[in-house]
Amino acid sequence: QVQLQESGPGLVKPSQTLSLTCTVSGGSISSGSHYWNWIRQPAGKGLEWIGRIHPIGTTKYNPSLQSRVTIGMDTAKNQFALRLSSVTAADTAVYYCAGGRDSGDYDWFDPWGQGSLVTVSS
Amino acid sequence: DIQMTQSPSSLSASVGDRVTITCRASQTISKYLNWYQQKPGKAPKLLIYGASRLQSGIPSRFSGSGSGTDFTLTINNLQPEDFATYHCQQSYSSRYSFGQGTRLEIK
């Protein structure tokens, strides 16, 4: 059973780059069983999809964040990573990594990591 | 981008009740609609995908319906563990988007 775990700094200064890593266990990140997503949730608010990376390396991003986001994979470490540049207080949120599944007809997010709170503050 | 709007934003109900949560898409999304349950401090959990398909391990008191732009999540015979926030999410466009969430509270 695939499990995900986020890691990274909990505090980032304004204008700097937020970096998080998601470690995948119970399966290979390059197997093709999942594609890999980042999703965030500001306190008390709804969920916002940030972007995804397919096992072959192709990426797709939320247009509202595209200019600041990069998602990459490290197959040797079975990890994928998020980089969000030029952060502001508005980027303070719990960041989740999630596996995307595709039945051929429909797709959804499952499983999810436990979430990592990132606060942007000086 | 496709906007997802849930209603109500919150509701109160009692154990044993039946509740319905609505999700509306800003354009047609066929049946590309998923529902998640989220408890405080926890990650969302998939309940339903493809508008009406129950994820493995989810109790049958949860059901989903709808197509096009209007969808519903129904919970029959509410149990104490069902009090949580529910999110809808469209997967019609690969620029995925979520509703703002519906908080289900104990009356």
The general outline of chain B is globular
Structural class of chain A: mainly beta
Poorly predicted ranges of chain B: none
For the secondary structure, the number of strands of chain B is: 11
What amount of the residues of chain A lies in strands? over 45%
Largest sheet of chain A: 7 strands, mixed
| H/E series of chain A | EEEEEEEEEEE
What is the ordering of alpha helices and beta strands of chain B? EEEEEEEEEEE
Secondary-structure content class of chain B: mainly beta
Rg of chain B to the nearest angstrom? 13 Å
Share in helix of chain A: under 10%
Work out the helix count of chain B. Answer: 0
Total strand segments of chain A: 11
Return the average pLDDT of chain A rounded to an integer.
96
Number of helices of chain A: 0
Largest sheet of chain B: 7 strands, mixed
Question: Which regions of chain A are unreliable across 5 or more consecutive residues at pLDDT < 50?
Answer: none
Rg measurement of chain A, Å: 14 Å
As a percent range, the share of helical residues of chain B equals: under 10%
Mean pLDDT of chain B: 97
